[in-house]
Amino acid sequence: MPAVMNKKFLAPVLFSLSLFVFWNQSAAKNFNVLDFGAKADGTTLDTAAIQSAIDAAATNGGTILIPRKKTFLVSTLNLKGGIDFHLEGTLLISTNQSDYSGDGVILASNAPNLKISGSGKILGQSLAYMTSYEATNEWWLFKEWRPKMFVLTGCTNLVVRDITFADAPYWGLHMLGCENVLVDNVTVNNRLDVPNDDGIDPDHCRNVEIKNCHVTCGDDAIVIKSTRQTNDFGDCAHIHVHDCVIRTQDAGLKIGTETTGNIHDIWLERIKIISSSRGLCIQLRDEGEISKITFSDIKFVSRYHSDPWWGRGEGISFTAIPRTATTKLGKLHDVTVKNISGIAENSIRVNGTEHSRVENVRFQNVAVKFNRWTKYAGGVYDNRPTKVLMPVEAHAADGFNLRFADNILLENCTAVWVNGAAGGFQNSIAAENVSGLKLLNFKGDSTTHPISEK
After folding, report:
1. Listed residue (320, 313, 324, 305) closest to 423, CA to CA
2. Band (278; pLDDT cuts 50, 70, 90)
3. Terminus-to-terminus CA distance in the chain, angstroms?
4. What is the pLDDT of residues 166-177, one digit of tens each?
5. What is the pLDDT, as a whole number, of residue 425?
6. Over the stretch 26-37, which tens digit does the pLDDT of each residue have?
7. pLDDT at 414 over 60
8. 419 in a structural domain
């Protein structure tokens, strides 16, 4: 944790060693799944045998061993509290829907002190869940049903570390309503051309640390959200994401789009985004409130992709737009963006609406170069999902584009065009219906006017 973090934020998310002393107890017994009848031939469904080992370990606590150099065909596995699901070999997920008893591969519900560890892999066989490849749009079309790789619900003192999952057909590591979570050194290696294969999704979670992860996926890489649920899982809060490397065709770091509950006290820092369609992204579309968000010490690349993919190369995009005409939109406020550098094919956006203005956004030491280098048509912003505004809006690219926002600070920031007018860029700053805009040592490189205000 950085020294600049205040104690109020630091205390909930800094896990003491005593939280996880459970895992250092040497008395825990090992349960090798081969001893429970698993065939490990990659073709025989080993779900029942592995589940038997899980159930046996859950009685007194212990380690489930998935041995190395073995491949196990699996469907739904229900993990229990107090165990270490230790993966050294490979789990190959079944492509037969009838094999599954839930909506995912690795499930857990209200399982305290659960650990998922090991240097092994879970392979998702994503193309078996696709119908065909659409060459024009450069993505795979998916079947009606696809399993998530993980659905971990209501788990406390959860540890996920060192594992790899790859080729996911749908969401990756989905954690719903979990508290006191450590995700460390996890590798996600999904296909870039499969939609909805998110990397890591903390959803209504609290006291979460995600660190040292490498994430490659077509959809959002690390996304913090609050989906609509029948149960009240509470706020999504006190989440620290740091020291990760990301490659995606959607948002690198994202909050939203599902924002039915409050999301606050989020710190994202020391992250490298190799490629994305939006480097840093906040999308408020529902009734929740998003506040006290900090992005720090991040490098990114953001670019256009083919039309169906979400995002239009916006380097940074913070938007508060109602999902439907009847949505009672929450508020987006108190966001800090500091020590950020990147190159983008489209603007830095802060975009509220008349009835939900974005407030108190600080950009400090933000240096972005703007250029066009892909073959795709430009001159648009992506407002999706919304039925209130144009989903994809024709708009010339500015350095900073600010609309329906109050109290915006740009301190020691630069917006530089690499190819000037050839890239289609216009104003260094375009401000429409904005109050309290403050510039301190701002350097722009505009082809028309440095600042445009309406």
Report:
1. 313
2. very high
3. 41
4. 999 999 999 999
5. 84
6. 446 999 999 999
7. yes
8. yes
For the ranges 5-14, 197-206, 262-271, 393-402, which has the lowest average pLDDT? 5-14
In a domain, 152, yes or no: no
Secondary element (H or E) of residue 55: helix 47-60
Compute CA 424 distance to the chain's CA centroid, rounded to the nearest angstrom. 30
Report CA 117 to chain centroid distance, whole Å. Answer: 21
CA 22/CA 20 separation, integer angstroms: 5
- Calpha distance 283→397 (Å, rounded): 19
d(CA 431, CA 283): 20
Q: Is residue 449 part of a domain?
A: yes
Count of structural domains, the chain: 1
Length of the chain (residues): 454
Which residue range forms the structural domain that includes residue 329? Answer: 244-454
Structure tokens, 304 = 């256009």
Contact between 371 and 419 under an 8 Å Cβ cutoff? The reply is yes
Is position 295 within any domain? yes
pLDDT of 204 over the 90 cut: yes
CA-nearest of 181, 182, 169, 219 to 199 is 219
Closest-CA residue to 242 (of 203, 206, 204, 296): 296
pTM score of the predicted model: 0.93
Place of tokens 């519900």: 109
Residue at 112: amino acid letter = P
Which of 316, 216, 325, 231 has the alpha carbon at shortest distance from 274? 216
